[in-house]
Amino acid sequence: MNPHEEQAGGGKAAEALEQAGPETLRTNKHETVAEHPSAMRERFNWIAESIARALFSGVIIHESAVEKIRSLAAEGTVVYVLRHRSFIDYLMVNYVLRREKLPLAVFTNGVSSRVLAPFSSLLSQLRSGLWGLLRGWRGYHGVHGHDYCAEAVSQGRPVLIFMRGRRRAGLFRRVGASAAAPRVGTDYLREIVNAHASGHGEKFIVPLALFRGHSFRRRDPGVSGLAYSVHDVPSDRRKFLAYWWNRKELFITVGTEVRLGEFIKRYCDDPEERLIRRLARAIQIFLHREERVVLGPALVSRRKVADLVLNSEEMRKALQEIAERKGVSERKLHAEAEGYLREMAADFNGMGFAFIAYFFKKIWNRMFQGLEPIGFEKVVDKVKHHPIVLVPCHRSHFDYLILSYLFYSRFVSPPHIAAGINMAFWPMGPIFRAAGAFFIRRSFGDNEVYKLVFRQYQCFLIREGYTQEFFIEGGRSRTGKILTPKLGMLSVIVNAYLTGIRRDLYLVPVSIHYGRIVEEDAYQDELSGGEKESESFAALMRARRFLSQKYGTIYVSFADPISLSEELGERKQRFADNDSDAEVLEEKAKFIQKLGFRILKDVNEAEVAGATSVSATVLLGATHWASRYESFREQANALVELLRFQEIGMTASLRRNVGDFRESVDFLSSNGLVEVLTRGQDEVIVVQEHKRLALDFYKNNLIHAFLLPSLVVFCLAEDPSRERLVERVWWWLDLFRWEFPLPEKEELGGLI
Description:
Number of strands: 18
CATH architecture of the largest domain: 3-Layer(aba) Sandwich
Number of helices: 33
Shape: globular
CATH class of the largest domain: Alpha Beta
Helix content: 40-55%
Radius of gyration: 31 Å
Largest sheet: 8 strands, mixed
Strand content: 5-15%
Number of domains: 4
C-alpha cells in the first residue's frame, strides 16, 4: 500500500502515519498501523526471490495443515510459534505462507525482513531514512517490539514468535557464557496474553516445526551432525547448507493449536507468571510432539544399547538368580547374554536406512503402480503421545519394507521391525539391521537367558518410545487367509508394558493388500508339495526376474489403535503384582490370547476388497471348472453389493470394474490365471487347473467377509425358521474358532 494514502480513522490514522514516517502501511479491520521492519513480505527482491525459490519451492506442507491454519485465521488471530530464532527458517515460513495464501505475520521477534524487500522499496527506505535522520526522526529504532506485538495481536493481526534466541557455541561463545539459547519468547507471550484481554476474538497459538528431509536424532551425533543436523540450533550458515543439500525433502508440520481464551480460563486462578510458564511449556510440548513424529526417539549406538540392557539392575538380579539355580558362573551367563543381544539387536542408522530406501525406490515404480494408505493420520496422532506397535498381516517379504517405506515417504520415524533370524543372511542382515530390523529366533525353548535378554531389550525399546512392528502370524500366509496368532511376541510386549515403563502403549492392526503377490509361483509350489527355498543372497539374485513384472497398487489400511492400558483396565495392577500366581498367570494367558485374536479380527475388518479377490471368489465358487461371462459378471456384482452393505472398503480397481468386470477378466487372462474362450455368441472363462491355488490365495484374502453371510444362508436353507438361528450359526462359528478371528457370541445376534 502507498505510505502516503490515508485510511478511515481520522486523526488516529494521521498520527500513526506521522509516527511511522515513510514505512509501508497495512490496514486491517479499518485500522491503519505502520508496518514493522520484521513483517513478512508479499514480494521479495529478485535476489531473495531466486534464493527462496531454489531452496523452498519444494517444501511440503500437508493440505490438512493449510486448511487448519486457514480456518483458525477465519475464526480469530493466528500467532505462529517456532522453536529457535533463525533468519533462514523465517524466510522458509514467509515463502510457504505466501505460496499457500495464508496470513503473513506482521511482526517477528529478533529478525528484520528489510533485506528481502524489493530494491525500489529499499532505495525509498534509504532515502527516507536519511531524510528522517536530518529531521531527527528515529523511526522504529525507538519503538519497543513488545508493544508493537501486543498492539498487532489486539487488532487481530498475525505475528510470529521465536521461543528461543540463537545459541552461541564453540569458539565464538564468550568465555563464561551459557551455551543454552536464551528464552526470548516468554516476554512476547506475556504481551499476547495481556492483549487477549483488551482485544476481540480468540487468539490461536500455532506451533510450526521445520524439518530437512528424513532425519534421525542421535544422542551422540558425531561428525555427521556437522553436515546434516538442523535440529540442534546450528548457525544460519550451516542451516542454509543443510537446506540446500536437502532442498527436495523439506517440510513443515503444524502442531496442536492452543486456544488462548480457553487456556486462560482453565488456569484463571494462576498468577500471571505461572500462567505464562504454563503456556510456554504447552507450546514446547506440542513442538516436541511434532519433532518426535519425524525424528523418533534419540538413537544410541549398539554398544550403548548393550550397556543399557545388560547392566540394568533387573538383568543383573535375574542372571544372578539363574547362575545360583544352575550352578554356573555369573560371568559366563553375562557373556552368553551379550552374545544373544549382539545376535538380536538392531543397529538403526540413517546411512543404512538411506541405502535401503534408495534401492527400494528404484524398484518400486518398476513393480508397483502406487501405495495407498488408509487411516494413517490416526496412527501419527498416537505417535505424538505414546509408543506404538504395528501388527500387520504377513503375506509377502515386501511387508517388511512397505510400512517402513510408507513412514519414510510421509516423514514419520520408521519402525524397528521384529524379523526372523532367517532374514539375517549375508550381506543383507547388516543392512536390514541398520534399517531397524532386530532378529529373533523362531523358538526360545527353555533358554532362560535368551528369554531374559529379549524381554529386557523389549523393555528398552518401549521405554525409549521406539515404534515397533511385528507379524503376529509368525510366518507368511501361503494361502492368503489370516493364520492363527502366534502369541510369543505379544506376550513379551504385554509383560514388558506391565513393568510400568510407560503410561500407555498402542497396538495398531494393519492390513496390507496387494493387487498381485510377488511370491505367487513360490506359494503354489510349496502348497503342491515343493520345499520352501531358504532365504539367501543367491535366492535374492534369482528374484531379480520379478522386477520386470507389474503387481498393481498396494493398500495399507490401519485399524483403530488399541490402547493396552484400556484393554487391561483394572487387571493391569493385578497382573503386575502377581506374576508368579498360577491363577493370575492363567488369566493373563487368556487375556493375551483374546487380544491376539482381537488384533487379527481388526486386521480383517480393515482389509479392502480388490477386483482380483472378488473375481477369484466367483470363479472358484462355481459348480463347474468354467463359467459363462454373463453369469460371472452377475455374481461378481452381487458380491460387490454385499460388500457395500457390510461397508467394506474397495480398491480403485474394484470400483472401476463394477458393472462389467471386463478389466479384471483381462488382467487374470493376461497373467495366465484364467483362459477366455469364445463359444458361439458366449464368452467362457476357464480356470487353469495349475493356477487354482494362485486364485485361491486371492479368494482367501476376502473369505472372512463372506463367512458369516454364508453360514446364515446355509442355516436358513437347512431350516427356514428363524428360531434358534443365532445358536445354529454359533455352532458353526465355534467349529471354525481356530480358523478365523471371529466375533464374540454376544455380538452375533446384532450381526445376523
